Amino acid sequence: MSRAQLSAVLLCLLAAPVAAQDTQMSFFITSEGLGDGANLGGLEGADAHCQSLAEAVGSQGQTWRAYLSTQVPGGRGISARDRIGDGPWHNAKGELIAQDIDQLHILPNIYTSTALNEKGEQINHRGGPAPVEHDILTGSQVDGTSFPPRVTQDMTCGNWTSNGEGSAMVGHHDRNGGGSVSWNASHPSRGCGAEDLRTTGGNGYFYCFAAD
Fold it and tell me: What stretches in the chain show pLDDT beneath 70?
């Protein structure tokens, strides 16, 4: 191949269009709870809330799922990690949260500045505006799985139907707060009512992921 022909080939390669990466929002923290503590109407109600909030800011053609696990006495419930698709996921500003399910549970880009609500706003965090609202409902273990039968404590507020007795595992979206600073499994809430969640450091928020 002559020098002129090689130059022509290189020019063609440089001019070839590069496939654009899809960075539309596929992850957010709910900007508001459902107003009844951790009673979200079960997984179905939580999913519907994710879908409604996403569509309110222009999301189209996506199926949204709440990152929540459940418990079954003597068995294993539904795991949050199995509900949310394969990724990748981006926040409302197009920033990559995780490329796939493994990165999400090993080294996710979930911090105060990236764990945004569907409007692209930060959630109240430790060291920021009051009140602190960094407790995000998950009912999950660090790897995103449901709790095994040997864990008899309620970690899902009655599978997201209780606004009174029980507790829910929460994560810290800001990765701050002492002890475990996991984004999805930091500590159980004090109870399932709205005031219980607030005094623990939350407000009934949860994570939403586009599952397709």
Answer: 1-21, 178-179
